[in-house]
Write a structure and sequence with these properties.
heterotetramer, A mainly alpha, B alpha/beta, C mainly alpha, D alpha/beta, A: mainly alpha, ABC transporter involved in vitamin B12 uptake, BtuC, globular, C: mainly alpha, two-stranded antiparallel ribbon, 14 helices, 2 strands, 1% strand, binds adenosine-5'-triphosphate, binds magnesium ion
Chain lengths: 332, 338, 340, 505
């Protein structure tokens, strides 16, 4: 925590730079503000859930239900708004985050009660939440016409715009919630006792208990927090795509997990940095949003993305392994 | 394939007795019932979304209209594997007819074969390529001409010149690919001033988000792009991307479209044309055709499948073409509510 | 009766699972009567089990060493694509008939083993967490299939091979017998052989395994090769059932295999679990799935039931384990007291 | 002396064992109270019952006049009870400073974190015990000795009234232990009550005022430490006379079995040479971080060497992996028993056979009967206290777990057995059993490299000793030199002088 940028993040930055240079050489169009703006916008939703997931993973857990939570929260609150005619962004966020928090609490309770790996539990609740929502709430899709108008305004909103060759590009307002989530999380993790408790139970739950932390309460907080962030992400997602589907998002969890892990978060918990997670998400989005620029035809997309992903994973993991081995730490 | 009635419904014996009598008087020789209530027809759709929700309403309507014992099976995901497994279960349950909108027609062929070997009538929709293996394939139109419709509308919107890009849901989606190829071919032949920016379509992964992200990237890679067409119903995502870049209306979009999901884009001008066929009607027609075949009445050119656009099907081999393409513009979109 | 008691005491989780499976079977029978267990329906279920079953076994193996293999479906499809190219003559190298089928089988075995070995190598040599390593290889292997086919399905395969997916032996599909056979062999390997023992040890504590002169790199590579091989078998079965191969077939199986493994008693932390458990879980899931079809449940309701099922099984395991532990404790205290 | 803690009638059972049986104990302020007893006699369990980690089946704890039936860890800490657990309970990825300060801040009820305050607390505590450390390093990066200091500082930071120390010296070398003892005596003077657990009797006698002896979950009695000597103490603990007979090499075969020549791995050890014959027990001692473990790992193929050569039976070989080491007949008993030695969730027999799998296999199949026989044999020989070989290893006490790991490697009948601190946390009774075994192995022609900090143990078991410091061999003793009176003193001083040098710069 002392060094601002650690070895690992340096590695990721190098990978990003090398790749960016490669893309710029293939297509100079890459070098423009719009690229940055686009990546910020397209990755903003993932950033938020990645930050939530990061907190969970630092606490030594994992959550694969956050997309189901995001969907549950946003779908339900927007449905309420459609049916009641409420047209307030604040309401949307508040209700969705509230629902997210509650579902997160359910995760925490189950994990605490069943004392089983969180991966399994949240795999179950992912199905459970999605099933409950679609069975008991609704399973209809809603197009842009019916959605509250504040949503579209938010999704399209920009902080400022710059002119481009054929129009204009704006920096999305979605950046604000991302920054808020990032700063809040940094504050929680770094400056609050509960945050240190999260790190502590991630290091060793028994030791944390002996140091006076209550792992159960911390876990409640962690999953509720990630649930709230998921709820927030759900609204932003709906605003950006300007439509409401009962079956979107769910299924993309593992990519986010991968992003967070590539960002240097220990799968075993206790260690992880927000900046790392952000870099991890960036790498994945950078990759996926430059395929057209480098002129790759669609049928080669996966091969290319997969190869780069494997290389990135191998390189970063191998570095870590060499470092550990030289300290006689066998991580396997 | 014809089928005897006794294998059908077992619950309504008294009714059956009556209908058998009626059938006897009507056809006098064969012991075949024409009462729809005696036939169990199941429609397997691709997945749960607005499109197939609408198809389900059509099928409900059919049930109401005719009393046909028809139901819908919705797989958990848009995956051929789930469709196959549902179909296997249905074969074992001995239904009279199965209608299916295959995710991957080729993958379904052996199971279809198995169903037909078991005496079950199989009707497909959106699978002209495998029509040889089924009793009937119902198409809302000829895929080539629907693709040309995309091209025609795009060309009209773009004034016949400029760069364009084509999207499909995925390279694995057969009908999307057929439309894409027909559209591109048509544009190449008829509009020499229009240029496709890529040799292959871009994949939007059947998601608005995917369409949005890909559109942003295309805009960057080809700043002079003037039009998009999307063979999956995700044109809204492209419109969103255009709106963000203040290009809505400047860059034209033609897309497969559901009225409920794209009316705003048509009205605000960011989408110039929406193309569609009514899923409810297609489902209605397919199931009704399945019943006709199962009950021995058969389907031939000119048969009325009782759904809008299918009142006089054109039979070509095993494919029954309706005439049901829908074209949406800002002016007529309010006439549709699915 | 005593025998049952002994068995329950020996392997609680498995016994709970067996009990639950019986409950499901009986409930389903009660609800649908004969139609559920008609010969036809059993045969139909037996046709559906193998392709998913092999994938679940593959997932199980990777779970047992504390890993996860997300690339199994991609692997199965790409192997199927390779095999289909051989079987439809594109890569037949002039072979015909049975020779071509044999060549295809060899190609399938080799490619699946290569994919598996690739996973194993990355994981063994760079210590990458298998979750992200296989996420990468999943995309990569899928990419190979995509680049080869451009997304279209590869059909026209040798009818000789297609027979294999359809044939029925002793009332049950050949592929189902194959699945049972492979499960049996796998179960025996795990419980009786040195390799199986090493796998449990390695899964339980890889560091201690290294210090016990277990060749960890080799273990990891072998396990992932076996995983790949099982996925490849699934690919062959898919090919024989649908007569064509295509990228993306069965993508929805991935999460389901994980759920089946958990219900089957495999600990994702490694070192725990038995093949029997997974096989029972697979069969149970199939029975439920068929029942769902008969009931025309909406996909969302199915999802809900899977979720409840998972939480229920886990909760039951937990409660019963806690209860039995309490009882053993009481018992042992009684013993101690009477000894004094 | 005022009693600040009384525990009455404490009983606690686990599945199959009664760990504590009606134990009464009184702890006084300003006193060092030692708990002594064999492995698995219930010392740690008692500590956990008193500090609220376990709820005892019967009995109550009275702290400063207040009675508790269900004490929670939080209540215990609020009452000034601090425990330094056998596993230290530190946070690997957190810094030294935070590890020291975090529980104090937590108990003060702080909701936010003040990093400056954390550092100042840590500095203050480290000063108190006179240790210098880099506050910003993570605990994962520092040595075991320093971790021990961190754990002590953490306990002290919270104004402990009673400090429980469960085998705090297991990972420390002599000098560090001496330092720790000094600190303990200081703390005692300040009025702190300390409960100290150690299997090293010299340590016990150095600090103890009162000694409570346990045997099999029963309390034998409270003794004033002046009334006991090592002999009577060990008699009370084990119920029999314990002696450590000195080892004399009897093996006639003088051809070297393992020769190491100028072995070097920069930064870990340098220029190490030795020749080992069958029947040799070579003691390897030195300060913590002197490179012993690193050398051991290199000989076991886990830590590649950079230069120098290794010859086995006169033939030059390279040992690239544990598999190669095993093939050459080299075995390693690792330092970190829990992570490197044991499969904690598996049965005793599976642990014992874990290095033997290929041997007990016939055509790839495990011969279960043979496995049972072997496991039973070593359980008996090493006197592992367990109901059966089917017991899961995780439920054994620390000492018995160690015996299982020793059993696992002796079962492979190695030619060279490297034992890295093999008797850490093992009671004197078992120790003598283990020594006896080791002597028997050596008599049978096995060569043993015995890494240890306990000079006594080295003197009793080794016929040659090598002293390492900073990765270099600083002195070698042969059988004659060891035999002379005062050899142990020379070794102790050698190590001591090294540490003095280390501290000064
Ligand atoms: N969590 C547990 N579950 C089951 N049995 C346990 C548990 N903890 C301790 N025991 C048993 O209780 C007895 C006392 O163990 P304890 O750890 O208190 O011994 P100890 O005196 O500290 O031994 P050592 O000197 O080896 O540390 C042992 O027989 C041990 O096997
Ligand atoms: N003060 C220290 N700061 C950082 N790393 C250290 C320090 N002391 C030792 N290490 C490292 O920690 C690891 C373990 O060292 P360790 O102290 O176990 O060595 P050792 O020679 O085996 O001593 P011992 O057997 O007495 O524990 C080694 O990689 C060593 O380089
Ligand atoms: Mg102890
Ligand atoms: Mg050491």
């Amino acid at each position: 925590m002392t060094k601002k940028i650690d070895q690992f993040q340096k590695m990721l930055l190098i990978i990003i730079v090398i790749y960016s240079v490669f893309v710029s050489v293939k297509n100079p169009q890459f070098l423009q503000v719009q690229t940055v703006f686009d990546i910020v916008k397209t990755s903003s939703t993932t950033m938020i859930v990645a930050i939530g997931l990061l907190v969970v993973m630092i606490s030594g857990g994992i959550d694969v239900s956050f997309m189901a939570i995001a969907l549950f929260g946003s779908y339900t609150s927007l449905l309420v708004m459609i049916n009641t005619g409420i047209n307030s962004l604040v309401f949307a966020f508040a209700l969705s985050m509230l629902i997210g928090t509650c579902l997160g609490l359910v995760n925490a309770l189950l994990i605490n009660w069943l004392k089983l790996p969180p991966f399994i539990i949240t795999l179950g609740t992912q199905n459970l939440f999605h099933g409950i929502m679609t069975t008991f709430i609704s399973d209809k899709s809603f197009g842009s016409g019916v959605l509250p108008s504040c949503l579209h305004e938010f999704g399209q909103g920009t902080l400022f715009k710059v002119a481009t060759e054929n129009g204009s590009a704006g920096l999305t307002v979605s950046l604000i919630p991302v920054l808020l989530a990032g700063i809040a999380t940094y504050f929680v993790l770094r400056k609050t006792m509960i945050g240190r408790g999260i790190v502590a139970i991630g290091n060793d739950e028994e030791s944390a208990r002996r140091a006076g932390f209550n792992p159960f309460k911390i876990r409640l907080f962690v999953y509720a927090y990630s649930g709230a962030l998921a709820g927030m992400m759900g609204i932003i997602y709906a605003a950006q795509v300007n439509a409401l589907y009962p079956n979107k998002m769910v299924g993309d969890e593992l990519m986010v997990v991968a992003a967070v892990v590539i960002g240097g978060t220990k799968i075993t918990g206790g260690q992880g940095k927000i900046f790392g997670a952000v870099l991890g998400v960036l790498i994945i989005y950078l990759l996926n949003s430059t395929l057209i620029l480098i002129g790759l035809s669609s049928s080669w997309n996966n091969l290319f993305v997969g190869a780069i992903l494997v290389i990135a994973v191998a390189v970063t993991s191998y570095q870590e392994r060499v470092k550990n081995r030289s300290h006689l730490i066998f991580t396997e | 394939g014809t089928k005897t009635a006794d294998a059908g419904d077992t619950t309504t014996t008294t009714e059956k007795a009556e209908t058998t009598e009626a059938a006897d008087t009507a056809e006098s020789t064969e012991n075949v019932s024409a009462d729809p209530a005696d036939y169990k027809v199941v429609m397997i759709v691709k997945q749960s979304d607005s499109w197939f929700d609408d198809m389900a309403t059509g099928i409900d309507q059919l049930k109401k209209d005719t009393g046909l014992n028809v139901s819908v099976q919705v797989p958990e995901t848009g995956d051929a594997a789930s469709q196959i497994s549902i179909m296997e279960d249905l074969i074992a349950q001995d239904v009279d007819a199965i209608c299916v909108v295959p995710n991957d027609p080729n993958a379904l062929v052996p199971t279809i074969q198995k169903a037909r070997d078991a005496g079950i009538v199989v009707v497909t929709h959106e699978a002209p390529g495998t029509a040889d293996s089924v009793d009937l394939d119902i198409e809302a139109f000829v895929n080539e001409s629907f693709g040309q419709l995309f091209a025609e509308n795009l060309a009209k919107a773009m004034d016949g010149k400029g760069k364009y890009a084509g999207f499909v849901g995925g390279l694995t989606m057969e009908t999307h690919m057929a439309w894409y190829e027909a559209a591109v071919k048509y544009l190449e032949e008829n509009y020499p001033d229009m240029e496709n920016v890529a040799t292959e379509p871009y994949e939007d992964g059947n998601s608005v988000e995917g369409a949005h992200d890909k559109a942003l990237e295309v805009l960057k890679a080809y700043p002079d792009i003037a039009g998009f067409f999307d063979c999956s119903a995700q044109g809204g995502g492209i419109c969103e991307a255009l709106q963000e870049n203040d290009l809505a209306g400047t860059v034209k979009v033609v897309s497969l479209a559901l009225p409920s999901m794209s009316s705003t884009y048509l009205k605000d001008g960011s989408m110039s044309h929406g193309l569609c066929w009514r899923p409810a009607d297609a489902g209605y027609a397919a199931c009704y055709a399945a019943y006709l075949i199962a009950s021995g009445q058969g389907v031939e050119t000119g048969t009325d499948l009782k759904a809008t656009g299918y009142d006089s099907v054109e039979l070509e081999g095993n494919i029954g073409y309706g005439n049901a393409p829908l074209e949406f513009t800002a002016d007529n979109i309010d006439d549709y509510n699915f | 009766m005593n025998k049952i008691k002994k068995m329950v005491g020996k392997d609680l989780d498995l016994s709970i699972l067996v009990g639950l499976a019986l409950l499901v079977l009986v409930t389903v029978a009660g609800a649908f009567g004969g139609s559920m267990y008609s010969g036809r329906n059993i045969q139909s279920m037996a046709f559906q089990i193998p392709e998913f079953g092999f994938l679940a076994l593959a997932m199980m193996l990777s779970n047992m060493v504390g890993g996860i293999d997300l690339s199994i479906i991609a692997n199965a499809n790409t192997v199927a694509i390779f095999t289909a190219y051989v079987l439809n003559g594109t890569w037949a190298f002039g072979t015909e008939g049975i020779a071509r089928v044999i060549l295809a089988l060899i190609v399938a075995a080799v490619t699946s083993l290569i994919f598996g070995a690739f996973n194993g190598l990355i994981i063994a040599k760079t210590s990458a967490p298998s979750l992200i390593a296989t996420l990468g290889t999943m995309t990569l292997i899928q990419g190979i299939g995509m680049a080869l086919t451009g997304g279209s399905s590869i059909g026209d395969i040798d009818p000789l091979f297609a027979e294999f997916g359809k044939s029925v032996v002793l009332g049950l599909p050949l592929i189902f017998w194959l699945f049972l056979l492979v499960s049996l062999i796998l179960g025996l390997i795990l419980s009786l052989t040195g390799f199986g023992r090493k796998l449990y040890l390695y899964g339980g504590n890889p560091v201690a395994a290294r210090f016990s002169a277990v060749n960890n790199e080799k273990m990891s590579i072998l396990v992932f090769m076996a995983t790949g091989f099982l996925a490849g078998m699934a690919g062959l079965i898919i090919l024989s059932r649908v007569n064509s191969a295509k990228v993306g077939y069965g993508d929805s199986y991935l999460l389901q295999t994980m759920i089946v493994c958990v219900i089957g008693g495999i600990s994702p932390n490694g070192g725990k679990g038995k093949v029997q458990g997974v096989v029972i879980a697979i069969i149970m899931m199939q029975v439920m799935s068929s029942a769902f079809t008969i009931m025309s449940l909406s996909p969302y309701t199915k999802k809900l039931i899977w979720g409840i099922m998972l939480v229920l099984v886990l909760g039951l395991n937990h409660v019963i384990a806690a209860y039995s532990q309490k009882r053993t404790l009481k018992q042992s205290m009684k013993n101690l007291q009477s000894a004094q | 002396m005022e009693p600040i803690l009384c525990a009455r009638n404490i009983s606690k059972s686990f599945i199959g064992v009664r760990a504590l049986n009606n134990i009464d104990i009184t702890i006084n302020a300003g006193e060092i109270h030692c708990l002594a007893g064999e492995n698995g006699c219930g010392k740690s369990t008692l500590v956990k019952c008193i500090s609220g980690v376990y709820t005892p089946d019967h009995g109550e704890v009275e702290i400063s006049g207040e009675k508790y039936k269900n004490l929670t860890p939080i209540e215990a800490m609020n009452k000034g009870i601090q425990v330094i657990y056998q596993d230290l309970s530190l946070f690997q990825h957190m810094t030294v400073a935070e590890n020291i300060a975090i529980s104090k801040l937590k108990f003060e009820g702080n909701k936010t974190i003040n990093w400056k305050k954390i550092k100042s607390i840590a500095k203050e505590q480290l000063n108190k015990i006179g240790v210098k450390m880099n506050l910003d390093e993570t605990v994962g990066e520092i040595s075991m000795a320093n971790r021990q200091m961190v754990a002590i500082c953490r306990a002290l930071a919270q104004d402990a009234k009673i400090l429980f120390m469960d085998e705090p010296t297991t990972a420390l070398t002599k000098t560090e232990v001496d330092h720790l003892m000094k600190i303990m005596l200081e703390l005692k003077k300040k009025g702190l009550a300390i409960v100290f657990i150690s299997h090293k009797l010299d340590e016990v006698f150095t600090v103890a005022d009162t000694i409570t002896i346990f045997r099999n979950g029963d309390k034998i009695g409270d003794f004033n430490s002046k009334d006991l000597d090592e002999k009577s103490l060990s008699y009370h603990m084990t119920g029999r006379e314990i002696e450590y007979p000195r080892y004399h090499r009897t093996c006639k075969d003088n051809s070297p079995i393992l020769e190491i020549d100028h072995l070097t791995r920069k930064g870990q050890y340098e220029d190490i040479s030795m020749t080992i014959r069958p029947g040799d027990i070579i003691g390897l001692t030195g300060l913590l971080g002197s490179g012993r473990t690193e050398l051991a790992m290199s000989l076991f193929g886990l830590n590649p060497t950079q230069s120098g050569s290794i010859r086995i039976n006169g033939k030059e070989t390279s040992i690239a992996s544990p598999m190669a080491a095993k093939k050459q007949g080299i075995a390693l008993l690792p330092e970190d028993r829990f992570n490197q030695g044991l499969f904690i969730e598996r049965k005793i027999k599976e642990n014992i056979s874990s290095a033997l799998i290929d041997t007990i296999c016939k055509k790839g199949l495990i011969r279960k009967a043979e496995e049972d026989t072997i496991a039973q044999k070593y359980v008996n020989e090493l006197k592992v206290r367990t109901p059966s070989i089917e017991t899961v290893v995780g439920t054994l006490s620390g000492g018995n777990q160690q015996k299982v790991v020793i059993g696992k490697w002796t079962a492979t009948a190695p030619k060279v057995f490297i034992m890295d601190t093999p008797t850490v946390g093992i009671d004197i009774g078992s120790k003598s059993e283990i020594y006896e075994q080791i002597h028997k192995f050596a008599d049978g022609g096995m060569a043993i490299i015995f890494i240890s900090d306990e000079i006594q143990e080295i003197m009793a078991n080794c016929n040659r000793v090598i002293v390492l410091a900073n990765g270099k061999c600083i002195r070698e003793f042969d059988e004659n030199e060891l035999g002379q009176d005062g050899a142990d003193k020379i070794i102790t001083d050698l190590i001591g002088s090294q540490s003095a040098e280390e501290v000064t710069p």
